[in-house]
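task queued by scheduler; priority normal; single chain, no ligands, no partner chains; default sampling; output format set to C-alpha cells
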Amino acid sequence: MIFLLALIFTISLGAVSIDLSGQGNKTGGKSVKTYAIFGDQYEKVTIIDSKLQGAVYYLVSGHGGPDPGAVVNYEGHILCEDEYAYDVTLRLARELISHGALVYLITRDKNDGIRDAQFLKKDYDEVCYPKEKIPINQNKRLIQRKDAVNRLAHKHKGQFQRLVVIHLDSRPIKEKVDIFFYHDSRSKRSANFANTLKETLEKKYAIHQPGRGYKGSVSTRNLFMVRATVPVSTFIELGNISNTNDQKRFIQSSNRQVLAEWLCDGMIKDFQGR
C-alpha cells in the first residue's frame, strides 16, 4: 500500500445504524453485519473492535439528486463531484462501523454502493435520510439535510455526536490543493475536531510519503451545514476536482479507501480525546 501511495497520491484519502437493518452473525468470534447500501462486494462488515462504541456520526456527502455538483472532463470521461464524494463517504461509514460506531448516512443511494471503478457513472437518484426526494433548489436542499441531522441529533441527545460533510472543491485547473477543513467559529470543539483530522493526515503523509509535505488547512467559514446543525461538525474539501493531479487521486479506488481509513483514524483520536 505504501508503494501505491507513493505512485498515485499526488496531493495526498455491535452498535451500528446507518439505518439499514443490518443482519448480523459471528465469524471467528467477531461480529459480522450486512449492509446492502455498501453494495454486494462490501456489504459484509466485520466489527473489529469497540474503539468508537457510543459515538454517533452523521455523514453528508455533497450535492446529489438533481445536483451533481462540480462536473469536469477527464480524458473524455465525466467526473461528477457528488459521485466521488459519496464513494469516500460510504467507505468512511464502513470504517467507522467496523470500530463500533453508530452511523447515519444523510445522503443515500440505494443502488450505487462502494465502487472500485475509476469512472463513477453519474445518476440522479440519491435521496435524503430517510427516503426524501432531494429538491432542486439549493436552499431547500440544505434545509432538508439540516433538518434530517437535527432530528437525529435530538434523538441522540446526550451522546457523543459528530457531523462530517464531504465535498470536492472546484478551482482553476492549475490550482492543486491538499485536503482542507472548515469548522464552526463559535465552537472550540468543532475547531478541535477539524484540527485533529488535519494533524492525523499530516502524520500519515510523513509516514507514507516522507518529504512530500502536507499543506492542508483548517479555517472558519460561514457555511449553513456547519452553523445550522446541532452536532459538532467539520466540513471537508478533498481537493480540486478540476486539477489533473487531484483527479488522479480521486479516480483510484485505492486512494479513496486510504483516505477513508485515515479520516477514520482521526475520528478515533477525536473520540478518545473527548
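post-processing summary
- The first helix runs from residue 2 to 8.
- Confidence is low (pLDDT under 50) at residues 1-17.
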